[in-house]
Write a structure and sequence with these properties.
heterodimer, A: alpha/beta, Elongation Factor Tu (Ef-tu), domain 3, 7-stranded mixed beta sheet, elongated, B: Rossmann fold, 2 domains, 5-stranded parallel beta sheet, 5 strands, 36% helix
Chain lengths: 610, 248
């Protein structure tokens, strides 16, 4: 490979002379707080030390909007092809964008040649540059190698503050650079080149080799990672519109206002936009956001590599940057799908306080994401060197930025958890299991029945429905505890009592001299509410100690509740949380997968259930 | 014969009709396409019937209904023209206040109960009569309006985008509002404006209403991740009628 070198001042003069020449000269310029490729009016506008442009340079060869044909209306013989071929020099292209251009070259020349693309492409001279500035979402090191961007005519490497080394790749590049004051590189420069090429390191690295990706996806269909991310997808198309390797387009006719003539134009389109696969007659062949997200990832990682033998994603990271929901990065999606099901994520303890002698309240945060749980789900919490144990989440999903748990000190792991201080880190897996599905019961009356620590998981559902109070009918909460020292969430319960059409009743197995409330087991509260509960339009949720369920369910059945309107959460030994270890099994059911939340009718015939 | 076109207004600022008056040289082409027979802002005169009626403004008074039904009965095609007509628009703000007497007192002062100031909760045009086509926007986009007129004259279905503003922002290569510390409704709001506001540094406020299947849950989540409180999010969704609590 021939290397030249040029001072930055001489390079600036070279660009300036090119601008004065007869070819259109494009380069990266500042655009507000971002960067974009634009026609250069002045060599001083050229930015070579940019992080990333908003749109990739493909826009020069596949314009945002392009006329393919012109016509006169009502005259099919008048269709006439148009091919725009402005010769262009484009300066400052990053290696991954060159790799993407190599893919587009292949896509538009394989099979029938797309002259509209190829004419523009063949009339261009590409001057690339190795990056000098990091970009948060870039993972190109995992996706491309040097051989992928040989479509460049010249490739610049910044050597120190004042000069570039220039790799001369093509004859066109050689011819162009002869117009500058570049000189053959010295041995001293050559010694630096390889190191300087890769001076900027990626922050994200793919956890499996690129060549293994097609196989990786062959074995994985839409899974919970895609489904969870797609829940946040706006179908706005930003990820595909900024992608250097996306080349799908939409074709339509534009007619002049005179109605006498018009144009057939193609414009950028993308598979993440909801209507992309909508056919005449109204059937959408890729109707859900999850299907669209899966298709996009599969196309990048499997279909294109298998079809063209080239990478379909170059790791530029523009999609991840453009996505305000933070769900678009192929690297993050793949890494998450590739994670061991037993690998915890790190969570930080934000706050902890004692609630009873044995119960402590904990608030945790996972860096960079919400837990994403539903009321009634659980997580596995790890202390390295001690072990892992399952706990219900006690906060509502409507609470953002952190999640809460109430943990009783009853064993090895919990005794260590009770010693944690704010700022300490733990491992978290999950959320796992089924949930109370309160969002499906809009318009219904709700009856929550908590025994002891059962109030903790129910609190998640209670705060969820109280946050959306108008969506639900009457809410009644019954809570039982052993004695005054065991009462939970005492201050918060006062706020629940203030909510509209909400009743909170409490009983203690045994009061003390100061206790003025009800005493007796939880079923002794039923006579107080029996007139106000309407079976048929009420869903009942029960969580408490094993002995409680039988008695409470009998009372509910007597009032007239259907077994399908009674929802229970069962505690079992859930060691793995992912339906493998077998400890939580009730007959043929894995509680961690099909539970812990069940409707009573689905488990009442299982001998081991209650 | 060129189609006879009438423009009508109800509760609105008439800014959408002004967009037509402002078409400049294109208005000559428009006049070549259609025969504008009724348009209070630029000509006098009336017609017994219309091939296309463009109705601007929302419906806020009882006697609006009678007039609208009359226009409908004399029109082959009726187009809800602009946000107020198509979605109820900014006039829907008063519905959120509930007490209309209070609204009238605030707006009209002492003479608030004069009969001609009688008002009821704002409704979109399609809540009263059948609407054949919609042109969204506050105000409408002139190019989109011309394309709609052209499609109606050609007898094809006017194509109105059902993807969000974000797509147009990307194509315009705008720096994302979220990347400069602002919050924007672009991800859930119907495009077609050419991302007019974000292109001028102003976040989308949702004048064209939500796209079909807009992911409002995600929008609320993202806005709260950008540190908006629940009240601020509610306020953001309420300038133009975007059903905040509606699910996807």
């Amino acid at each position: 490979m021939d290397y030249l070198t040029i001072s930055k001042a001489d390079f600036r003069d070279f660009v300036s002379e090119l601008i004065d020449g007869d070819q259109e000269v494009n380069g990266v310029v500042k655009k507000g707080l971002g960067f974009s490729y634009d026609i250069l009016e002045n060599a001083d506008d050229l930015c070579m030390d940019y992080d990333e442009t908003i749109l990739p340079p493909k826009k020069f060869f596949l314009p945002v909007k392009e006329v393919l044909l012109t016509f006169k209306t009502k005259d099919p013989a008048s269709y006439h092809e148009t091919v725009e071929t402005t010769p262009r020099i484009i300066i400052g292209i990053h290696p991954w964008d060159l790799a993407a251009i190599a893919l587009l070259d292949k896509a538009f020349s394989t099979g029938q040649s797309d002259v509209n693309y190829l004419e523009k492409r063949n009339n261009s001279v590409l001057v690339g540059i190795y990056p000098t500035v990091p970009y948060k979402h870039r993972f190109s090191g995992s996706m491309i190698t040097d051989e992928h961007y040989q479509v460049a005519d010249l490739m610049l490497v910044e050597i120190g503050n004042d000069a570039y080394a220039i790799e001369v790749i093509s004859d066109a590049g050689s011819k162009l650079i002869k117009r500058s004051r570049a000189v053959p590189a010295t041995q001293e420069t050559l010694d630096k080149v390889e190191e300087r090429k890769h001076i900027v390191k990626d922050e994200i690295v793919l956890s499996i080799p690129r060549v293994d990706l097609p196989d990786f996806f062959r074995k994985r269909q839409i899974n919970e990672v895609i489904n969870r991310l797609a829940d946040r997808c706006f179908s706005c198309g930003s990820c595909v519109l900024v992608c250097p390797t996306c080349y799908c387009f939409h074709v339509e006719e534009e007619v002049d206002l005179s109605l006498r003539a018009g144009r057939r134009v193609r414009s950028w389109d993308g598979c993440m936009i909801e209507g992309f696969a909508l056919a005449a007659g109204g059937h959408n062949f890729r109707e859900t956001a999850a299907n669209r997200l899966r298709h996009r990832i599969m196309r990048k990682i499997k279909y294109i590599p298998e079809h063209f033998g080239m990478t379909g994603c170059v790791g530029c990271g523009r999609c991840a940057h453009a996505c305000v929901a933070h769900i678009a990065s192929p690297a993050e999606i793949i890494n998450e799908m590739n994670r061991s099901i037993y690998l915890p994520e790190v969570a930080t303890l934000l706050k902890t306080e004692s609630m009873t002698e044995k119960d402590r309240f904990f608030e945790f945060k996972i860096e960079g994401r919400e837990l994403g749980h539903q009321p009634g789900q659980f997580v596995e919490l790890s202390i390295p060197g001690v072990g892992e144990a399952p706990f219900s989440v006690s906060s509502s999903p409507t609470k953002k930025g952190s999640f809460e748990m109430l943990i009783r000190n009853v064993g090895k792991v919990t005794s260590f958890i009770h010693q944690l201080n704010p700022g300490d880190k733990v491992g978290i897996r999950g959320p796992f299991g089924t949930h109370f599905a309160v969002e499906r019961f809009k318009g219904k009356d709700l009856l929550f029945i908590a025994g002891g620590l059962g109030l903790a998981p129910l609190r998640s559902a209670i705060n969820f429905v109280l946050n959306k109070r108008n969506d639900y009918g009457d809410i009644i909460i019954l809570s039982g505890a052993r004695d005054p020292s065991q009462r939970l969430f005492v201050d918060e319960v006062e706020r629940w009592k203030q909510a509209p059409n909400t009743t909170f009743l409490e009983t203690l197995d045994k009061g003390d001299n100061n206790w003025k409330g009800n005493t007796g087991v939880i079923t002794t509260l039923f006579p107080l509410i029996i007139d106000r509960v309407a079976p048929g339009k009420t869903k009942a949720f029960i969580v408490g100690p094993p002995v409680m369920y039988k008695f409470v369910i009998r009372e509910l059945e007597e009032i007239g509740f259907d077994d399908s309107d009674i929802i229970v959460s069962l505690e079992r030994r859930m060691e793995c949380g992912v339906g493998k270890c077998g400890h939580c099994q009730i007959e043929d059911i894995y509680v961690c997968q099909e539970g812990p939340v069940f409707t009573y009718d689905s488990i009442k015939d299982l001998m081991e259930a209650l | 014969m060129k189609p006879k076109v009438g423009f009508f207004d109800f509760a609105c600022c008439e800014g959408c009709q002004l967009q037509i008056a402002n078409l400049e040289e294109d208005i000559i082409d428009l006049a070549g396409l259609v025969d504008i027979v009724e348009f209070r802002e630029i000509l006098t005169g009336k017609s017994p019937e219309y091939d296309i009626a463009f109705v601007e403004g929302s419906i806020t008074r009882e006697n609006d209904e009678e007039r609208l039904e009359d226009i409908r009965s004399r029109s082959k095609v009726l187009v809800a023209f602009g946000s107020c007509a198509a979605t109820g628009g900014i006039n829907m703000l008063k519905n959120a206040r509930g007490n209309l007497e209070e609204v009238r007192r605030d707006v009209y002062g002492e003479k608030w109960d004069s009969p001609h100031l009688a008002t009821y909760p704002t409704r979109a045009v399609d809540e009263i009569v059948k609407v054949d086509h919609y042109v969204y926007g506050c105000p409408v986009n002139r190019d989109e309006l011309l394309r709609v007129v052209e499609a109606l004259v050609l007898g094809t279905k006017p194509e109105i985008p059902d993807y969000p503003v974000c797509a147009e922002c990307k194509i315009k290569e705008n720096v994302c509002m979220f990347h400069i510390g602002k919050t924007c409704l672009g991800p859930v709001v119907r495009a077609g404006c050419g991302a007019a506001c974000p292109s001028n540094g102003v976040p989308c406020e949702g004048c064209r209403g939500a796209i079909p299947h807009a992911n409002k849950n995600a929008m609320r989540e993202v806005l709260s991740e950008y540190n908006l409180t629940a009240e601020e999010i509610m306020e953001k969704f309420s300038l133009f009628p975007i059903d905040l609590e509606g699910s996807k």
